[in-house]
Design a protein that fits this description.
Distance between the termini of chain A: 37 Å
Number of helices of chain A: 0
Order of helices and strands of chain A: EEEEEEEEEEE
Largest interface: A-B, 26 and 24 residues
Largest sheet of chain B: 6 strands, mixed
Shape of chain B: globular
Number of strands of chain B: 11
Structural class of chain A: mainly beta
Oligomer: heterodimer
Strand content of chain A: over 45%
């Protein structure tokens, strides 16, 4: 089956520093990857859509200068939280859509990254 | 207000009992997806429904989409501890299948 990995699974950083989270599709090519954010006991909120070789599309209310997304290859997208603050602490989940397939049926989710900013 | 509401928010059932989770949209959907999430983990795809009146089953889980494509139910028969987790419905509102809007989630506990 299709596997999506995220690294790191957990990260603790100090306020003001930047953190990079990687999302990789391990056995398929993903032209599109999605980044979600989930607060405790809440649902997933789409932050941005990442397309390989082009700029990410951010959802309303998401600061693109704070959450930098790079999708440099068909198997890797990165999310960098810049100048992190405690309110950025959250669970970040990525998903990857299989190349050539147009339905979310083929959207595979990573295991998530828990970010804690102290 | 939420565009996609799930009910109940949480549920505790005894092992062996049946249960139903509902997902209601304020707008007609192009597609409705059910996922399961263990706490602190990613989402596991369960089922996708696209046609009004459609019903799909996998093992002991059955999902239905109403004729108007605004409401879906997820039914678990003879629940087991392995069914415990958070169930999320996701809606395709654009018809392009490019992104999903998720419901509020239902937390299921199965007691012995």
């Amino acid at each position: 089956g299709a596997v999506v990995s995220q690294h790191p699974s957990r990260v603790i950083c100090k306020s003001g520093t930047s953190v990079k989270i990687e999302c990789r599709s391990l056995d398929f090519q993903a032209t599109t990857m999605f980044w979600y954010r989930q607060f405790p006991k809440q649902s997933l909120m789409l932050m941005a859509t990442s397309n390989e070789g082009s700029k990410a599309t951010y959802e309303q209310g998401v600061e693109k200068d704070k959450f930098l997304i790079n999708h440099a290859s068909l198997t890797l997208s990165t999310l960098t939280v810049t100048s992190a603050h405690p309110e950025d602490s959250s669970f970040y989940i990525c998903s990857a859509r299989r190349f050539g397939r147009e339905t979310p049926y083929e959207q595979y989710f990573g295991p998530g990254t828990r970010l804690t900013v102290t | 207000s939420q565009e996609l509401e799930q009910s109940p928010q949480s549920l505790i059932v005894q092992e062996g009992k049946n249960l139903t989770i509902n997902c209601t949209s304020s707008k007609t959907l192009y597609g409705l997806y059910w996922y399961k999430q263990k706490y602190g983990e990613g989402l596991i795809f369960l089922m996708m429904l696209q046609k009004g009146g459609e019903e799909k089953s996998h093992e002991k889980i059955t999902a239905k989409l109403d004729e108007k494509k605004q409401q879906s139910s997820l039914h678990i028969t003879a629940s087991q501890p392995s069914h415990a987790g958070i169930y999320l419905c996701g809606a395709d509102r654009t018809g392009t299948a490019s992104k999903l809007t998720f419901g509020t989630g239902t937390r299921l506990q199965v007691t012995l």
